[in-house]
């Protein structure tokens, strides 16, 4: 019976392959001018990324499954039938990106999961329970909302039928696109229930770098509220219409943005973002007939998030009266804050200590698939620093050494959780 240390000593991370695969995956859908890559969910470029991942899973001789929402699972099986029948230790994240993205968001967690199973393979060892690497569909949610959709369906938070019917911002139906790229699998998403779930991710924020910490031990994730707001006013001549007679949808949208900035400034942790704004008819000398924009509200405290939503709705009601416009808001996504499983959080902290890394406990500002899987299994997250705190941007970067630190902690936690 090998002790954990003997067993663990044989199992070593192959950092070179991990770094090479991050580079290779990062080249798929890459735009040479901006240096960013765009692999928006269910596009041809994302299919190319999926195909590459599946090829790497095949090289590791993993048991591959695709579920009905296109989540990709690669499993390293144990030796005995009893062990094979156990719920898997799952390591997951996503490989879809926003537009003009960095190479690490999501991909780092999935490929580090491959690195963990590669360490077993190269040491010719088998785990005592299945280890499943998951790449969840449409984590970013930029084309089809809500975001984190694949893991949400896996966690039973959205029915597969509703998900497949989703119409994207480009008018396409999610189910058709999934079929078109050849990833409409047959596994029932809710049939995949992990024993525990781990996600390694770049912080995508400035804290670890500012405090010169190597590892983030994530205790909780913020709540997220996404809305699409449409304001209908009256198009009119910019030169002949007195200011007091206008129903200006553009001005109304701008006043909501100012209101949101003041709301966030007056609260402890609430963040408010209007990331997309379209005016029509979008002409220099015509008062805007309509404005369509998105609102992204976040807060680690559910009551604060609800209060921000209520205050926004109250402001919109007053604005409708004052400006004589019609305002409709549609909820695109709504996730409550999540507190991670303390046993796993403690395990991650102990691993960081054992490996001699500086670390701090922290909240995740971004949403992650772990937020969904935490509904069905104990989940934990590990962060590594982001240079200048930048993400969702081609300048996203984490040093190789820091990337390997995170993967080391992931491997160590896996070995501890398997108690091999
Ligand atoms: O928006 C988010 O935080 C997630 O990455 N979709
Ligand atoms: Mn991500
Ligand atoms: Mn992201
Ligand atoms: Mn995310």
UniProtKB/TrEMBL annotation:
One Pfam family per UniProt: M20_dimer
Cofactor field: Zn(2+)
Binding positions for Zn(2+) 1 per the UniProt entry: 94, 105, 201
UniProt binding sites for Zn(2+) 2: 105, 140, 392
Keywords assigned: Hydrolase, Metal-binding, Zinc
Gene3D superfamilies: 3.30.70.360, Zn peptidases
Claim: Metal-binding is one of the keywords in the record: yes
Cofactor comment: Binds 2 Zn(2+) ions per subunit.
Gene Ontology MF: a single term: hydrolase activity, acting on carbon-nitrogen (but not peptide) bonds, in linear amidines
Metal-binding recorded as keyword: yes
Residues annotated as domain Peptidase M20 dimerisation: 222-317
Highest rank taxon of the organism: Bacteria
InterPro entries, per the entry: Amidase_Cbmase, Bact_exopeptidase_dim_dom, Peptidase_M20, Peptidase_M20_dimer
Family listed: Belongs to the peptidase M20 family.
NCBIfam families, per the entry: hydantase (TIGR01879), PRK09290.1-5 (NF006771)
PANTHER family listed in its UniProt record: ALLANTOATE AMIDOHYDROLASE, ALLANTOATE DEIMINASE-RELATED
Name of protein: Putative hydantase
